[in-house]
Amino acid sequence: MTPVQPSRNRRSLARQKGHVAAEMALGFLPLFALFIGILEFSFSIFMQCSFQEATRDAVRFGITYSLAYNGTTYTSQTAAMTAVAQANAFGFLSASTTLADGTTGASKIQVNYYFPDNLSTPATASELPYTTSTTPSYVITNLNQTGNVVEVRVNAYPWNWMVPLPNFMPGKSISLSASSLDVLQGLPVGQTTYPSP
What we know:
The chain is of the alpha+beta class.
């Protein structure tokens, strides 16, 4: 048996170290891309769910006709519901958040009122007083009158990917939207007039 020469052992060891580094580099890049992809999609799903929950909370608050939220009294029901949506959206819908399209997060919140016999077109103050086409018909004098429907929606919130991939999604954003609606209930005990919508 011939003894192995030390210089030959060192060369073999150095070659093995080079192979390990190359294999790690080749394995690390796809693993890193997979990790970033999981983060990207998870975060967009998290944002979508938070918008849906924020609109749901705002509508639940809106049907109570309250104008006070978190120690602040608002001048209209729409302003109060907008504040509830902003408070429950983890800061994504705040007025100080500037989005990729140059708007603010608060500008993406929209509050609509619908007459009970027309749920396809938002009602406007210029249509008041409004006589319903239902039997029996009745006159609606307020946008937020009992029986009307209130909707809170987040419209086309742009989300840019953290790492755009050339030839796949180079800097293109997706639009996240959410909405929730409910029927306005009766006024609280002791309240006789509707707040400003």
